[in-house]
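Researcher: Good morning. I'm working through a list of sequences from a screen, and I'd like to move beyond sequence-only analysis. For each chain I'm collecting a predicted structure so we can compare shapes side by side. This is the next one on the list. No need for commentary yet; just the structure.
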Amino acid sequence: MTNECQVDGLTAQSLNDHYAAVSTDTLYQPTTRKSTVQNHGHWITEMEFFRILDCLRPTAAGLDGLPVWFLRIAAPIFAAPY
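Model: Good morning. C-alpha cells for this chain:
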C-alpha cells in the first residue's frame, strides 16, 4: 500500500518556486527566511524530535493550547515514523 499524500522530493521551497514561476502577479516578492531558520537542508531525526518534545519547558504552551505534559507523554508516538 502506498501513501498517495506523500510525494518524494516535494518541499516547501519547490512549491514556492513553482507557484512563483506560474504566478501572474507582477508584484510578487519571494518570501525571505526567518532569522531563526538554520540549515534549511537538514532533516530532523526521530530522536531529535523526541528530545525536542521531551525537553519542552513547562511554560511552552503554544497557540494550539496543548499542555506540555501531553506533548511529553505523547513524544514517543509523535516522533515515530508513520
